[in-house]
Specification:
Chain B: GO terms for molecular function: amino acid binding; dimethylargininase activity. Chain B: This is Dimethylargininase. Chain B: Keywords: Hydrolase. The structure holds two protein chains of two kinds. Chain A is built from 39 helices and 20 strands. By secondary structure, chain A is α+β, with helices and mostly antiparallel strands. In chain A, a hairpin with a 2-residue loop joins strand 7 and strand 8. The N terminus and C terminus of chain A are likely disordered. Chain B has one domain: 5-stranded Propeller (L-arginine/glycine Amidinotransferase, Chain A). In chain B, 23% of the residues lie in helices and 24% in strands. In chain B, strand 6 and strand 7 form a beta hairpin. The model of chain B has no long low-confidence stretch (mean pLDDT 92). The chains are: A alpha+beta, B alpha/beta.
């Protein structure tokens, strides 16, 4: 893990490559083009981060392998040299970096050079990139190579090596993959370029439409509920839904929304395969081995339309019972067992059915002779019952069991006591041992969130209570916390809502992950089921197959060799695909990356729907649901392509987010959660890997708010202190105001104000406590723009934010550049450069530099260019910094960018006239806040932009997520008139060298 | 999983003379009139036996066990399983022996609470037909509840803190399927809220003015339908009016004036069993 060869190569290439990749990706993912993707997301981290995009994919595998979150581990300053870091960095980071680098290169070649040098150094370092990830990286690299010939070539070679290594390393990967790898190697030998292409193909997301002839195929093994094994060949980049649909087709299952595919992660934890994301990115290094199982247990199985669905549910429950997951009393074991016998064997036949006839069945975890006798006794009483009736009876009894459909997760309460969290159709259950000690029905839950390894639910105040309360639980690790959170989100959506949450709903930035359940809800699936018009499908029950197998039959794995041949063939052809596909994949990855970051950071899900009564929900969704139904019904069958279309078509589509610059109507949310949410679906893969953050040293959050403001509104707010702005230094309270004031000042111009806030947290320094007193920088972020005054007062109350603002010490900085950006407003791109602020104490400003000013620009490309310029300046600075001797610290950098759709068209490439630009910087030990206020006049409209960068430095102990969430929250409250167009969170973590 | 309230057998125990002088008390200092208490109990048993037709196992009193008449605390029976408890009061631990023997005779699957750290009084166990609520009281601890949950795996077992009363069922009980009779006191209402929150099921509630009156016995007997044994008008006239609104129930007032002085309630004096469910 320590060194990654691939990363090195990547580094060199990255700068150049990046741009191309982005472009490619953009087109693919969303129709929307290229521009946004390139510049936007990356900008923040880009300059500073040495690592390249390519490394991303390879890294991802590594990341996967090493459960720890890539992002977290790395050390403080982005500026710090990232030697092996690139590996650790999540794919998205890498991409970002690469992009940023590109930008940087464009803007300032000089800057790039230094980086490249660094990179080279890094490269020199041993590259032990772990694993299979290599392939993915290669693709990116290859792309780069194409663009940039020589250096890239070298890199390519390295990449190839890496790929090979990775392949070998990934033990988990199925045989086929290995074969593929071999084939790949051969190809590589033949032609590097071709190989590269092939690789790229592999990495690229599978789209039904793929042109590539050489797509790599992988054989997926799916253990079905009857214990049999289903093997299915899929493209390596295929999404989960493709495989799922294949399985459903195999099963002849129509009511499939209750089911899902799961796999075991490296920690042997069961994870649900997100249908909207690439399989490969979800399973990481695990084998392509899945289990088809019930995901949502229907509370009333009798409402299922088809017998085959009930039958499958029965099979699942038999497993649950036999494994002990579903505890039953003796009598219930016997009763359910007897129905199983009736369904499988028909009427009891004294001649045919002797006592040992049931020895092949497992009715209970510990099956006794007594139980078997009881089962037989009851079996006799079921005479005349058809298999379907027996199944129905089975379900009628099973559904009453208290643990029916309860998904349990180990956790600890606030006092460290071991408890279990049970997620079910009605809400969240809390168990201590076997006792239910609390229950939170969905209507009682206002918000579900997770932060690191903590899982939180915000509870609606009771009748006698005035305030909401938040209950926190400690999960074993971050992944577990996220897993619970996702399961909750899915269950809530499936059982509680009429239709999946509309991604675009949220008005304001929500840093939380945007993951949402994207499938049908129970209401929808029932609706769809009611329309099923086919003769009851014939299906064979397990008895015939089972013979000597227990109900919970052991999975049999079949490896098909032919895949190998196919793969090789595919690879051969694959090279051709090249660029376009790759590009797409890249862009997606980028997007995903961003989403993840956000996700990780904030991980706050707002289940807004909860607040509403069901009735409200119904009303709200009534109109929409009709459309959706018709739509969904229209495409009942699982067609991957349709899915994709649907996803892409969705408003929230990841593209933009990923694209970075592209303004989304809805704030960042969708993007953040890219994994789960259908919206973000495209991005997904990386997310999975990324989410796990080992340690977070630094987080940088940039929030840009673009307020379309009507000039009037802005003006009034600003009035107070125009002049103070520059010089208000270090007066805590005043500062914040001053900033705002400044903003307002500028406001002279009209209306749009943009605020960008960045929060960087630097690790080593004081932790939360320190932050608080200083006023969390992060909090401040959003507020900056309009309401200087209000912000101070109001926010303070809420949380640290208020304080944070004041704390800021003003510095005049580089910000000039930012101002310029603002003027240019159009370019959404942000280049956030981070060059690792090596020293802990050192201010992180550097990192933040290029903030995303993407705000308005709907079109990414424009943004880029502008961004570039900005980035250059920063880059230059950074480069210098980097050159400086800084303690060598391995760092990981994550950048999350959230962009809201621009309200105004202003952003689009038209610069407008820059009226004013101000930059204020404040520093304290732990935080550095830089505020840029720019006002531009466009077509008679004034636009004020406030850009805030907040750097938080502190140990991992600091609750970065919370700080972020608070900051955003405050910002919203403080600047109701303004809109947040972008939030970029850049997080740098010092990697422990131990980590792999 | 038989119909809720269906019972075929009842286990009761005679009133020892020591009840008047040595029985544990939580509040009342009123002197217990032993003869009246014994008469009261005889009426209670006769209702079960003659009026309702249950097969009643009458255990002899044990003078060494002054509280032995309150057999409910010694065992929790649900379906085919009887959990022999470990009463919270050390002086009552031996009460379980006779009850266990009786339940064993009835062919129930016996589960014993052997964990020395566990305590459980049957009076803290409310079975609704869908789930258990276990009062965490001075007599019942979490470990006892865990063992109960282990004994009855089909059902959810939720914890309900009990304050100000001896047992959970000192102020509530089941008055019908999905119908909880509950007292009006703050403590009772609070406990009800907790139960409602903890349950996936929505229960109806029957609120009676007097907490003690909320302890009644519901049965669903073949040929008789819904049967409810509740307090007498002499004891709690206002509460009786509430019960009388249950038009579909066969209402049987049963006096409990004496036993209540030593914290005895209607449910305390019997263990009901349904052998058909086995």
């Amino acid at each position: 893990m320590t060194t990654e060869v691939g990363s090195e190569t990547d580094v060199k290439k990255e700068p150049e490559k990046v741009p191309e990749v982005q472009h490619q990706t953009d087109p693919v993912q969303t129709d929307q083009p290229d521009k946004p993707a390139d510049s936007d997301p990356q900008p923040v981290a880009s300059v500073a981060q040495p690592e390249e995009s390519r490394s991303v994919e390879p890294e991802s595998p590594q990341e996967e392998s090493s459960s720890p979150d890539p992002s977290s581990p790395p050390a403080i300053g982005g500026q710090k040299k990232e030697k092996g870091i690139s590996r650790f960095l999540p794919p998205w980071l890498k991409r970002q970096k690469s992009q940023s680098q590109d930008q940087a290169s464009e803007s300032a070649e000089s800057a790039e050079k230094p980086q490249s040098l660094k990179e080279e150094e890094e490269e020199s370092e041993p590259k032990d990139q772990p694993d299979g990830a290599g392939a993915a990286p290669n693709t990116e690299k290859t792309e780069e190579v194409k663009e940039e010939s020589r250096p890239e070539e070298v890199q390519l070679e390295e990449n190839e090596k890496e790929e090979e290594k990775s392949v070998g390393s990934a033990d988990t990967q199925p045989v086929r993959e290995e074969k593929e790898a071999e084939s790949e190697v051969k190809e590589r030998e033949e032609e590097k370029k071709e190989e590269e292409q092939v690789i790229q193909q592999e990495t690229s997301v599978l789209s039904p439409l793929r042109l590539n002839k050489k797509m790599k195929m992988v054989v997926c093994h799916v253990t079905l509920l009857d214990g049999t094994q289903f093997s299915c060949e899929v493209e390596k980049r295929a999404k989960g839904q493709y495989l799922f649909f294949q399985v459903c087709e195999q099963l002849n299952l129509v009511e499939k929304d209750y089911f899902g595919l799961s796999f075991k992660d490296n920690a042997e934890q069961r994870c649900w395969l997100d249908p909207t994301k690439e399989i490969k990115r979800q399973i990481r290094n695990s084998q392509w081995q899945f289990a088809f199982s019930v995901k949502f247990y229907p509370p009333d199985p009798s409402q299922l339309t088809e017998d085959i669905t009930r039958y499958l549910l029965c099979l699942q429950l038999r497993q649950d019972i036999a494994s002990g997951r579903l505890p039953c009393s003796f009598v219930t074991h016997a009763l359910l067992g007897s129905y199983s016998l009736q369904a499988e064997l028909g009427d009891y036949d004294p001649e045919e059915h002797r006592l040992d006839y049931i020895s092949d069945f497992q009715f209970a975890p510990n099956q006794t002779k007594e139980l078997e006798e009881k089962v037989v006794e009851l079996h006799k009483s079921h005479r005349g019952m058809t298999p379907a009736q027996a199944d129905a009876q089975f379900l009628e009894n099973a559904k009453k069991l208290s643990m029916y459909g309860v998904d349990l997760h180990h956790a600890k309460d606030s006092e460290g006591v071991d408890i279990m969290l049970g997620v079910c159709a009605n809400g969240l259950l809390i168990y201590k041992d076997r006792l239910r000690i609390n229950r939170f029905a969905w209507p009682k839950i206002l918000k579900i969130s997770y932060k690191r390894s903590n899982f939180y639910i915000k509870i609606r105040p009771g009748e006698a209570e005035q305030f909401e309360s938040t209950v926190g639980f400690k999960l074993p690790n971050h992944r577990a916390a996220k897993r619970v959170w996702k399961v909750c989100v899915e269950h809530h959506t499936f059982f509680r809502l009429m239709s999946p949450e509309n991604p675009t709903k949220s008005k304001f930035l929500t840093l939380g992950s945007k993951f949402r359940y994207s499938g049908r809800t129970q209401a929808q699936t029932r609706q769809a089921s009611s329309l099923i018009d086919r003769p009851a499908p014939y299906f064979q029950r397990t008895s015939s197959k089972r013979i000597s197998r227990s109900l919970d039959g052991a999975p049999m794995v079949n490896v098909s060799d032919y895949s190998h041949a196919v793969d090789s063939a595919l690879t051969a052809g694959a090279g051709e695909n090249g660029p376009a596909l790759e590009l797409n994949s890249d862009s997606k990855s980028k997007l995903r990356v961003q989403g993840e970051n956000i996700y990780v950071r904030h991980s706050n899900l707002m289940l807004e729907d909860l607040d509403k009564t069901q009735e409200d929900v119904l009303k709200h969704q009534a109109s929409i649901s009709e459309l959706k139904r018709s739509f969904m019904e229209a495409t009942p069958e699982p067609r991957p392509s349709q899915w994709d279309k649907r996803l892409t078509g969705s408003p929230a589509t990841t593209l933009r987010l990923q694209a970075q610059g592209v303004p989304q109507n809805s704030p960042p949310h969708p993007e953040t959660d890219s994994r789960d949410v259908s919206k973000s679906t495209e991005v997904k893969p990386e997310v999975n890997g990324q989410p796990e953050v080992v340690e977070v040293v630094e987080e940088t959050v940039v929030i840009e708010e673009v307020i379309k403001a009507k000039p009037k509104s802005s003006a009034p707010e600003t009035p107070v202190t125009v002049e103070t702005e520059v010089k208000e230094e270090r007066s805590l309270s005043s500062d914040s105001e001053s900033e705002e004031e400044e903003a307002e000042y500028h406001a002279q111009t009209p209306s749009a104000s943009i605020s960008v806030q960045q929060i960087e947290e630097e690790p080593e320094e004081e932790q939360e406590a320190g932050l608080i007193p200083q006023a969390l920088p992060s909090v401040v972020e959003s507020q900056p723009i309009t309401e200087a005054e209000p912000a101070d007062s109001a926010p303070s109350a809420e949380e640290e934010q208020a304080t944070a603002q004041p704390e800021e010490e003003e510095r005049t900085d580089k910000d000039d550049a930012p101002n310029g950006h603002a003027a240019e407003a159009p370019p959404p791109l942000r280049a956030v450069e981070e060059e690792p602020p090596v020293v802990n104490g050192s201010v992180s400003r550097v990192e933040a530099e290029l903030l995303p000013q993407v705000i308005c620009c709907s079109e990414p490309p424009v943004v880029k260019t502008e961004m570039v310029t900005i980035s250059d300046t920063f880059a230059a600075q950074k480069t210098e910094i980097s050159t400086k001797e800084v303690p060598i610290v391995h760092t990981e950098t994550k950048t999350i960018t959230y962009e809201a759709a621009q309200l105004d068209g202003n952003g689009d490439g038209e610069p407008g006239v820059l009226m004013t630009a101000q930059t204020i910087t404040s520093e304290s030990l732990c935080t550095t806040t830089t505020t840029h206020i720019t006002k531009t006049l466009k077509g008679g409209l004034s636009e004020t932009r406030i850009e805030k960068r907040i750097v938080i430095t502190g140990d991992s102990d600091i609750d970065h997520d919370q700080a972020l969430a608070q900051a955003i929250k405050e910002a919203k409250e403080q600047h109701p008139d303004m809109s947040v167009t972008r939030v970029v969170v850049h997080k740098e973590t010092e990697l422990a060298e131990d980590e792999d | 999983m038989s119909a809720f309230g269906r019972f075929t057998h009842a286990v009761v125990r005679a009133v020892p003379r020591s009840l008047a002088t040595e029985a544990l008390r939580t509040g009342s200092v009123e002197e217990l009139d032993l003869p009246r208490a014994q008469h009261e109990h005889e009426l209670y048993v006769s209702v079960l036996k003659q009026r309702l037709g249950l097969e009643v196992l009458e255990l002899p009193a044990d003078e060494a066990l002054p509280d032995c008449v309150f057999v409910e605390d010694a065992a929790v029976v649900c379906g085919d399983t009887a959990l022999i408890t470990r009463p919270g009061a050390a002086s009552r631990r031996n009460e379980t022996e006779a009850v266990k023997d009786a339940l064993t005779k009835l062919g129930l699957k016996i589960v014993e609470m052997t964990d020395e750290s566990a305590t459980l009084d049957g009076g803290d166990v409310l079975f609704t037909g869908r789930e258990f609520f276990v009062g965490l009281s001075k007599r019942t601890n979490q470990r006892g509840a865990e063992i109960l949950a282990d004994a009855f795996k089909d059902y959810a077992v939720s914890m309900v803190p009990v304050q100000g009363y001896l047992h959970l069922k000192s102020f509530c009980s089941m008055a019908g399927p999905d119908l909880i009779a509950i007292g009006s006191s703050d403590a009772a209402q609070k406990a009800l809220k907790i139960m409602q929150q903890m349950s996936d099921h929505k229960y109806d509630k029957l609120t009676v003015p007097d907490d003690l009156a909320a302890n009644c016995i519901y049965m669903n007997l073949p040929g008789k339908g819904d049967v409810l044994l509740h307090c007498t008008p002499e004891e709690f006239p206002e509460s009786v009016k509430v019960f009388e609104k249950l038009k579909d129930h066969m209402l049987i007032p049963v006096s409990n004036q004496e036993k209540v002085k030593v914290d005895g309630a209607l449910t305390c004096c019997s263990v009901l069993v349904c052998k058909n469910s086995v």
